[in-house]
Write a structure and sequence with these properties.
Keywords: Signal. The structure is a single chain. The protein has about 700 residues and is mostly helical. Helix 4 runs antiparallel to helix 5 and helix 5 runs antiparallel to helix 6.
Length: about 700
């Protein structure tokens, strides 16, 4: 009995050993039908199946450009579920209880097949097993047997893997490849569910390639899908990044205004309000030019409302406050009488707004170089606007005070010299006015457009009874600007499309750039171009067109795979559409500017004729007095003058040469003039003009 019991025990033990011995003859890749062990076998070297947190990507090298802090790349085209580490970091085991589709990985390598344990590989039992690996220990090696390439057990479809490839290329700074990969997805209509994410990757890649206008086109398409889409808010943020990279931030104003009702991220909310205020300011001024003052009033009121919503401590507040001051000046300038302007609340509000801008833009330590540059430019514009406001109110000495604040050589310096010449003329300081005009007529500024300077010079000579010199100056004015007037009139009368007006100016720019020889008509058109570009909005739009054309030309410098790709063709077509729209906009502004300047030039020519008539009349009266007196009668006499200067100045006689360090310091001395005066610089300011 005991013996039979022992035999039964041995038989059971043998069957158990035969059942548990694995077979190395078969291996089913990716299949594990056994339950996963909760404990790791002692001495096992398998990788832990715990997920690790993804770590931040480090900089690749010293020469790489650092990512701007505001351009957050964490919002890539991957979904939150895709932020898990790659499947290669865990055993490639898939169980029926936990299907792989529920835990997708960011990158999905092919699953590794299960291999037999070491005991089988080292000559273990080859008994008749079932061919299934039911061990609880994870395999160590891959058996080179069957492979099912069409099976993706990582939990991602092949389409999602294609998108991940584009994302990873972007993260590895391979922007051209990332852009082309994303564009391929966009061309496949079967992948419509991934198009939004693919376009987001494409837009960001184009931005990193420096193709800002192309990037803007792609972000515009994303925004057109509406606020319910995944990347709407982040696309709005990228608009601000683009505005800081382009020469003209107004290229995004239309896009900003289109989404004005959306809630912008708090970080960019004040910048958005400033840009929207600028949009309404530009729109209001355009409505004024086309004779729609009622609609323009609404735009300027919107400017004021938006400025009130920006905190005073915000970096964009000074620029917004400047727009508010301009809007108030526009409303107050409807008053024609100087006395009425001095008591007008809008004019006073404009003055206070500009003073606030000047206070906020004082040079202080701690500002970045870029911010200091912006503040300096804005401060200069505020000084100019204060001077113009006081000049319009006939407070000429206030105007001279603010014009003197513009530093020599700055952007507004020549304009300040010209405007101070008129203010000096009003207070009778003729010699200082003529000194400024000498600077404006120097060869250094021959390309600048100041036709009114010759009229002012003729008037000053007329005021000092120098009639012959006044006539000679007027003849010079007509010889220089009458052909410009005729060419302007011919252009305006053609009634061309808006784009054609810009094309005329663009042709002049092209000849200047290529150094081509210009005929007499081209020289006149070049003056008209400089005249048109005195409009700041037109100049900025022109800069945008040139920048966009430069981006189009840059395609030739790209790698051949990108240059001849379908993406390049698509982008070029998009840039052409943007260029056409900008040219149409620039053409409208150019036509309006040319029409305005034609009217102004007609007025100047008429004033010149009036001065010539007055001069001729005075000369006639003088000759009649000579005949009545029966002899020679003097009309002018030598003035009393002095060449004494202050201790920090040096008197140096002018003999026709110009030196850069002397520009702006000239003071013309009228040695003779009207016989009833002792000096040219008499006090002619009336009580009303004080």
């Amino acid at each position: 009995m005991i013996r039979s019991f022992r035999l039964i025990r041995l038989a059971v033990l043998g069957l158990a050993l035969a059942w548990t011995a694995p077979s190395f003859a078969q291996s089913f890749e990716g299949l594990d039908l056994g339950a996963q062990s909760k404990k790791k076998k002692r001495g096992s070297s398998t990788t832990s199946s715990k997920k690790k947190k993804p770590t931040a990507r480090k900089a690749r090298g010293k020469g790489k450009q650092a990512t701007p802090p505001e351009e957050d790349d964490t919002a890539t085209a991957t979904s939150p579920a895709e932020s898990t580490p790659p499947a290669a970091t865990t055993p490639a085991v898939a169980t029926p209880a936990a299907p792989a589709a529920t835990t997708p990985a960011a990158t999905a390598p092919a699953p590794t097949p299960a291999s037999p344990p070491a005991s089988a590989q080292s000559g273990g039992s080859t008994g008749g097993g079932l061919g299934l690996d039911l061990t609880q220990e994870a395999p160590k090696q891959t058996a080179p047997t069957m492979s099912f390439d069409a099976v993706d057990v990582s939990g991602k479809t092949a389409d999602r893997q294609r998108l991940d490839i584009a994302v990873n290329l972007f993260k590895n700074d391979e922007y051209e490849k990332a852009a082309m990969s994303a564009h391929e997805l966009l061309q496949d209509q079967k992948l419509a569910g991934l198009h939004t994410e693919a376009r987001y990757v494409l837009a960001k890649a184009l931005y990193r390639m420096g193709m800002y206008h192309s990037s803007l086109g792609e972000f515009s398409k994303l925004l057109a899908l509406g606020p319910s889409t995944k990347f709407f808010k982040t696309s709005l943020e990228w608009l601000f990044f683009i505005s800081r990279k382009t020469k003209n931030e107004t290229v995004i104003l239309d896009e900003i205004a289109r989404h004005a009702n959306q809630e912008f991220p708090e970080k960019y909310r004040n910048e958005f309000r400033y840009l929207l205020a600028r949009y309404h300011f530009v729109r209001g001024r355009a409505l004024d030019q086309v004779g729609q003052p009622a609609d323009a009033d609404k735009s300027f009121e919107e400017v004021k409302r938006l400025v009130l919503s920006i905190p005073r401590t915000d970096p964009f507040f000074p620029r917004a406050k400047y727009l508010e001051g301009l809007a108030a000046f526009r409303n107050g300038s409807h008053q024609k009488d100087a006395a009425a302007k001095r008591g007008n609340g809008e004019m006073l509000a404009s003055i206070e707004a500009m003073k606030e801008v000047i206070r906020l833009t004082r040079p202080v330590p701690g500002k970045s170089a870029e911010q200091a540059k912006l503040d300096k430019s804005l401060r200069e514009l505020a000084f100019m606007q204060l001077a113009r406001t006081h000049y319009g109110m006939q407070q000429n000495r206030y105007a001279l005070f603010y014009l003197a604040k513009v530093e020599r050589g700055n952007t507004q310096w020549l304009e300040s010299l010209f405007e101070s010449s008129w203010a000096n003329y009003r207070v009778g300081q003729y010699e200082q006015a003529l000194g400024n005009l000498i600077t404006l007529s120097s060869p250094f500024f021959r390309e600048e457009y100041f036709p009114e300077a010759l009229i002012l010079k003729a008037v000053i000579y007329y005021e000092n009874c120098r009639y012959r010199e006044s006539n000679l100056i007027l003849q010079d004015f007509e010889r220089t600007y009458l052909p410009v007037h005729d060419q302007l009139e011919a252009l305006v009368k053609k009634n061309m499309d808006a784009g054609e007006y810009y094309s005329v100016l663009a042709e002049v720019q092209k000849k200047n750039k290529e150094g081509l020889e210009k005929n007499e008509t081209d020289v006149i058109l070049e003056r008209i171009l400089r005249l048109a570009l005195t409009d700041q909005d037109l100049r900025k739009t022109n800069d945008s067109i040139l920048e966009l054309e430069g981006e189009m030309d840059a395609f030739a410098n790209r790698a051949d795979t990108f240059k001849y790709s379908d993406l390049s063709k698509s982008l070029l077509e998009g840039l052409k559409v943007q260029r056409t729209a900008l040219i149409s906009k620039a053409g409208i502004m150019a036509k309006g500017k040319l029409e305005t300047e034609l009217v102004a030039l007609k007025q100047l020519l008429a004033n010149g004729l009036r001065i010539k008539f007055e001069t001729t009349t005075k000369e006639k009266e003088f000759l009649e007095e000579q005949l009545k007196a029966g002899g020679r009668t003097a009309i002018v006499k030598k003035y009393k003058y002095s060449v004494a200067v202050s201790d920090d100045q040096l008197y140096w006689p002018y003999d026709g040469e110009y030196w850069r360090d002397e520009l702006g310091t000239y003071q013309y001395t009228l040695t003779k003039g009207c016989i009833e005066r002792d000096t040219a610089n008499r006090n002619v300011q009336s009580a009303e003009a004080l």
